[in-house]
Amino acid sequence: MERVDGVRCLADGWRLLISFQIKANKNYPMIGRHLTTVDSRPAQFVYTHWRHWYKPNNFWQTQRHPSSSVCSATQPFNRPPRPPDPYNWSSWRQAGILAQSQPRRGFLHSVGPMDHCERGPPQKRRKGAEKLQSGERSVHLPKSSPQKGSSSPKGSPQLLPDVTSNQTPLEPFFPLIELKRHWEDFSHVCQAPTTNEGKEKQPFEFSLMSYNILSQDLLHKNAYLYRHCHPPVLEWEHRFQNIIKEMKLHSADIMCLQEVDKDSYDEQIKPALESLGYQCEFKRRTGLKSDGCAVVFKRARFSLVSCHPVEYFRQGIPLLDRDNVGLIVLLSPIDPQSSFSNICVANTHLLFNPRRGDIKLAQLALLLAEISRVAQLPDGSICPVLLCGDFNSVPWSPLYRFIKDRRLDYEGMPLVEVSGQEQHSRRTRILTVPIWPRNLGISQQCQYESQRDSDWKQEEIESFTKPSIEHCLNLTSAYSHYLQESGQSEVTTCISRTAITVDYIFYSAALGDARAQAEGIAPPERGLQLLGRLALVGEDELQRVKSLPNQNNSSDHLPLLTCFRLYPQADS
Ligand code: KL2
């Protein structure tokens, strides 16, 4: 028997016996529990898909069996042994590594800390099954599924920086491919307004990121979605370090984060961001959900005027029975002359369920009503608004158009069409008129209203009988949803191997804004100008880096990053 890199192979006819040398450490508690510890090799050396066989030079080889030098000494029939498939528990059992009684949904157990494992598979399966029933498995699947495995960047640091812990960083295990994103600069297109004396006004410039960081809890609950990933890249410690590294790299002045687990937020994310000079606000989802939305901003650049969490769960309103939330902050730019207006930053993660467009629209209406209230200035006008997050709706879907066009006529619209996540599905229910009931206290113009019937104006009562909704915010999307060079669709996330856009940064465009000009909109004088954005990528590019998450891109979403310019208030 020959020993090779932590794997001792022995092929005995058809039966393969492998004993792995695994050190049970806190990264791999389940491996430690189920497998024999032989020596101090970290688990990632052996925990791999069989097609990605570990070679001594630290590269995983695709579709190749280990060379004869690996096992030939003990192979009676010259048949290369097949290491167990880590995604398939039964192969671990066949290999004699797991007891026959080990749980079948092994992958769910293999990627995280012990406390997650205790939840057990039934709950996780149930969630997946429930989602499937409600059509949550996605749609326009690429014909060629992404290759198994993951990737790492060319020329990027081989070892990840140790941000907060003393964990051993992952070894690089694939040919290094980096996801390339370039900066798209619009500053030359932006026109500066002038003062009454004809002088150019000095602007306030800031950057903003929107990033769904993929909750570790949801990752576990929907583990079947991440089977294409090399398990160690799904480890929270690895992902956390990468995510913080990415945030540090971009150093956005404001970050709107979704799917932030409350425990990791308290113990790791908030302390790490505070040490980078951020003030952090957080709103957890309702019910028993462990994740939520965070808005963080640099203390040196903004001060917090007010913070407004929005819960979409409403007791007594059957439509609003989901635990999604939004978080709105009103920020004051820090500037010695105090010449800039506040900005209103809203962050949300709308319901995922592709078939419940009615719930998504009602959640959005609640958020828009709160933004309109928070952003309202004493003169009745609205301060610059940034609305970002994961809307679980694709570009040009009715929900997206509602945000941009300020109006949606929805007569006879099937619920499944609202978000456009599913292209080919049975059209079942259609949106009711009105979508949300009057006792929610939100008008068809997405404004708060008195709930006393006697206070309702006649036209407001009538508006509830018309199949149309409106809102009062002028919002432009910072991204154009097509790549400038290739015309391919931009991608912000991979769901069930489908690459789509569901994340957005909408903003109140001002006169002279490049995007507003490109879209032929004449925006008001006050607002924001888009100076630039970090380009997204297309599906091809994502396939090249083996989809998301991968060794470097540690979420199933990409961060959106934009830079804005704010001009001083009129004649100040
Ligand atoms: O698409 V998301 O991922 O905005 O990144 O929002 C939801 C989904 C998140 C919160 O519910 O969990 C993910 N198929 C794909 N993704 C799912 C599914 C599913 N069946 N269920 C939950 N999510």
TrEMBL record:
<feature type="region of interest" description="Disordered">
    <location>
        <begin position="108"/>
        <end position="165"/>
    </location>
</feature>
<feature type="compositionally biased region" description="Polar residues">
    <location>
        <begin position="64"/>
        <end position="75"/>
    </location>
</feature>
<feature type="region of interest" description="Disordered">
    <location>
        <begin position="64"/>
        <end position="90"/>
    </location>
</feature>
<protein>
    <recommendedName>
        <fullName>Endonuclease/exonuclease/phosphatase domain-containing protein</fullName>
    </recommendedName>
</protein>
<dbReference type="Pfam" id="PF03372">
    <property type="entry name" value="Exo_endo_phos"/>
</dbReference>
<dbReference type="InterPro" id="IPR005135">
    <property type="entry name" value="Endo/exonuclease/phosphatase"/>
</dbReference>
<dbReference type="GO" id="GO:0000175">
    <property type="term" value="F:3'-5'-RNA exonuclease activity"/>
</dbReference>
<dbReference type="InterPro" id="IPR050410">
    <property type="entry name" value="CCR4/nocturin_mRNA_transcr"/>
</dbReference>
<feature type="compositionally biased region" description="Low complexity">
    <location>
        <begin position="141"/>
        <end position="161"/>
    </location>
</feature>
<dbReference type="GO" id="GO:0070935">
    <property type="term" value="P:3'-UTR-mediated mRNA stabilization"/>
</dbReference>
<feature type="domain" description="Endonuclease/exonuclease/phosphatase">
    <location>
        <begin position="209"/>
        <end position="557"/>
    </location>
</feature>
<dbReference type="GO" id="GO:0003730">
    <property type="term" value="F:mRNA 3'-UTR binding"/>
</dbReference>
<dbReference type="InterPro" id="IPR036691">
    <property type="entry name" value="Endo/exonu/phosph_ase_sf"/>
</dbReference>
<feature type="compositionally biased region" description="Basic and acidic residues">
    <location>
        <begin position="129"/>
        <end position="139"/>
    </location>
</feature>
